[in-house]
């Protein structure tokens, strides 16, 4: 009779170096997001040139009216005319949940726009999003959103306000309260700086992305 040894009692040595690639996502999380998520782009409206100019004037008025502020108003650059398109990303996971955030070419993240647009100082989720309470597996209480539905407003130190939209049809599953508390995540940890997670109302990718583009059209 042949003795068969229980495999669970055998000492097996693993070469941990062979599995080192599994930790690569810690250094390059964005590349792994692109690998496993289907990515599309949605163009939200940017503040127009008139609004940008008005915001710039308010900023200059504030500088000149504050005697404790020693900065030179003439050093404050004028806003670009027009502002670049405000591209958002939509990353769809294999289970069809869609993650919404700012694309790298969005004026708020594009370093070439920072002088005129400014840095983000506040992320304000709109009331119907902030009040949403989703319960249970059937997502009771989830808000229904359309692609153009505002999700939040992003304020800059230049007085500009950018509206972030839902980008797809679906139910709001989660909004990123951490981003509201720490807007700097947009710069320091962009992989964590999503705005919302939305569950589409269909499994048809064509309908899910009917307002999105495969690639941003840089103008």
What does this protein look like?
It is built from 7 helices and 9 strands. With 219 residues, it is an alpha+beta fold. The strands form 2 sheets. Strands 1-2-3-9-8-5 form a 6-stranded antiparallel sheet. Strand 2 and strand 3 form a beta hairpin. It is globular and about 70 Å long. The N and C termini lie far apart (78 Å). This is Actin-binding transcription modulator. It comes from Coemansia interrupta.
Described by strand count, sense and barrel closure, the largest sheet is:
6 strands, antiparallel
Order of helix and strand elements from N to C terminus:
HEHEEHEHEEEEHHEH
| Number of self-contained structural domains | 1
Distance between the termini: 78 Å
Q: What's the total count of β strands?
A: 9
Range of helix content: 10-25%
SS class? alpha+beta
Major sheet strand order = 1-2-3-9-8-5
Please write the CATH class name: Mainly Beta
- The rough form would be described as globular
Biased composition (Low complexity): 63-78
Organism: Coemansia interrupta
GO cellular component, one term: nucleus
InterPro entries: Abitram, Single_hybrid_motif
Give the helix/strand layout.
Layout lengths: L28 H8 L1 E7 L4 H17 L20 E7 L5 E5 L11 H4 L2 E6 L1 H4 L13 E2 L4 E7 L4 E5 L4 E6 L1 H5 L3 H4 L7 E5 L4 H4 L11
Organism: Coemansia interrupta
InterPro entries: Abitram (IPR039169), Single_hybrid_motif (IPR011053)
Protein name: Actin-binding transcription modulator
